[in-house]
């Protein structure tokens, strides 16, 4: 019987998924606490992105449990998962290059279950109120991520780092309790990495827990506690950054795979 952790927001147990007979997730057990920024690391091909794909409902699991905020979400469709407050970002930011930052934020805020197009088209007082609330939230999100100065610029005109921030903003507009961030600093310069870290550090204080995949160990070390290490479709180690870094099994898993 697994020990239940009172502060567990997300409890994944025995999660399995294979592609064409190749087992990519081989019984993953992970607990994510509310109020924490949890790091997920591991060599290429360990199964980290697949784990995000399964947890966010894009890929159904072959077996196992995903309990989030007291609900079983294994196999649930992506919109059910995000409506439950579990929202993800992608390695390569998605979106519409010609839409402005503001339009992006509004779009993803509006893209919520229960949001019907009809009242918006009819222009009822309730839908106007909802639009005004959304606009306020979009501005709040832009300010939180220091995107307010570029709020009217098209997404295509943003720097690589700003695109990453917009991807995070998109997730925040869904009012999540947990965000899954897939390589939030990939391709970003060191100064902006520091800025992204500072923005992420503010999220637990707003009631948003974070689980992030990242290859930049300095970023992980500065931001994440605990750190979970995956290798070959399983969790290999978990603890503080210092403890997993000192773990011989972790060193071995990385050896020769990535400097
Ligand atoms: N839809 C799919 N069809 C077939 N194989 C897949 C699919 N998705 C993932 N895989 C395979 O699963 C394995 C794990 O990939 P995954 O992207 O989850 O690893 P990762 O730990 O995120 O690696 P990286 O750090 O390089 O992003 C890889 O061998 C990959 O080719």
UniProtKB/TrEMBL annotation:
Protein keywords: ATP-binding, Nucleotide-binding, Transport
Signal peptide (from-to): none
InterPro entries linked: AAA+_ATPase (IPR003593), ABC_AA/LPS_Transport (IPR051120), ABC_transporter-like_ATP-bd (IPR003439), ABC_transporter-like_CS (IPR017871), BCA_ABC_TP_C (IPR032823), P-loop_NTPase (IPR027417)
GO cellular component: plasma membrane
Domain ABC transporter: 10-257
SMART domains linked: AAA
Sample GO molecular function, one term: ATP binding
CDD domains referenced in this protein's UniProt entry, alphabetically: ABC_Mj1267_LivG_branched (cd03219)
Family designation: Belongs to the ABC transporter superfamily.
Record's protein name: ABC transporter ATP-binding protein
Species of origin: Vineibacter terrae
